Amino acid sequence: MRDEELKVELLCRGMRVPREAWDYYKRSAGFPIRFGDTLVSVPSKGKYDRYSFVENSPYSIMRSDERWLLLKDGEVVREVEVAEVPGFYSRRSSDGVEMRRIFQVCGWDCVLTGVVQSCAYQRHGEECRFCGTIYNPVYEGRLDRKLPEQLAEAAEAAAQEGIKHAVITSGVMPTPDRGARILLEAAKAIKERVDIPLEAELAPPEDMLYLELLLEHVDSVSINLETLDQSVREYACPGKSRIPYDAYFTAYELALDALGENQVNSWLIAGLGESDEAVIEGVEELAERGVFPFLVPLRSTKGTGYEDTSPPSPERLSGLAMQAAEVVKDFGLKPEKNRAGCMRCSACSPVRDFLRLV
Ligand code: SF4
Question: Hey, whose CA ends up nearest to atom 5 of ligand 1?
């Protein structure tokens, strides 16, 4: 099996992590492993138990002497790499908060944080049905709000340990900036303290001035439509789907003008109930606008509206990733030129990997 196909298998089916490997978890959302040029944030079951679909996965990982082995049905598939847990996890900010609660390793050499981890839509029961944020606090001693100074200190500590880029995100706020102001404060504080490439992930603000201000302090952005099938979008995101497409398209233009090519992406989720055609139409619509279609499979997370929905099959995701890679190539997008965040990391999406095949 090619590495690209193995990645898709792991993204769609997950992997079981035995107790002796629990110390190597960096966060609950995925267990990062690397083989060859391929990095995967594998939905896992072990210390954390976020995904019921993983119970049926044939894949598991084990440590044998100094080596890490990926197994399928108990047979070794191949040797893989697992990164050490970084030292900053055991440090504290000057106000005494464990840094592992401020920033968490995401992928290999990236850290991520939810600056504010609540969402305005949650208050009215209109949160996105796939959003795993509401499940996090059970496991991770979640800090609902990280202060700019805490973020700056933790980002600096992470950079000293070899972390190369960072992602900041927030729930949608019930204000005209929709959360961009909080990200702006965070980005300014981080950049004043440490020279680390930074991605902000946000919804398009109602008042685009806030986006323009934020763009002065970040290197790339992720503005996620998730699906361009409006009926699926209304089901999956009862609140966020009221933000019109035009607001996204305006935000993409502003971001591309300010940050340049290959610095803007949108997550697209396969498995929300859409057709293959809708996925590829969405990929084309985004790529044509210069936005990288960061296609990921649904991670059916316990406690969310998609808890009982299976992720797409590996066969379906491979087919979609191959088509998406062809579109990306046709429009000349180059994820390897991305400076920070998900496009640069790509542990959650197979599109960048499949570009090697087209
Ligand atoms: S692709 Fe984004 S969310 Fe996934 S592991 Fe990398 S930085 Fe984290």
Answer: 107
Q: Which of 106, 163, 353 to mutate to test the pocket of ligand 1 (most atoms within 8 A of CB)?
A: 106
Q: Do 171 and 64 share a domain, yes or no?
A: no
Question: In this prediction, what percent of the chain has a pLDDT beyond 70?
Answer: 98
Does the global pTM surpass 0.90? Answer: yes
Backbone angles phi, psi at 225, to 5 degrees: -90, -25
How many structural domains is the chain composed of? 2
Residues 82 and 68 sit within 8 Å (Cβ to Cβ): yes
Reported as a single tens digit per residue, the pLDDT across 17-66 is: 999 999 999 998 999 999 999 999 999 999 999 998 999 999 999 999 88
Q: Is there an atom of ligand 1 within 6 Å of 270 CB?
A: no
Interval 265-279: pLDDT, tens: 999 999 999 999 999
Distance 158 CA to ligand 1 centre (A): 16
Q: Rounded to the nearest whole angstrom, what is the distance from the C-alpha of residue 181 to the centroid of ligand 1?
A: 23
Measure the CA–CA gap between 191 and 184, rounded to whole angstroms.
Answer: 10
Cα radius of gyration (the chain): 19
Residue 134 binned pLDDT confidence (cut-offs 50, 70, 90): low
Give SS3 for 213.
helix
Has residue 181 got a pLDDT over 80? yes
Question: Locate tokens 């138990």: which residue?
Answer: 49
Q: Tell me the residue range of the domain where 284 lies.
A: 87-357
Final residue before a domain boundary, out of 46, 61, 80: 80
Mention every residue, 6+ apart, whose C-beta is less than 8 A from residue 340: 110, 165, 166, 167, 196, 197, 198, 199, 218, 219, 220
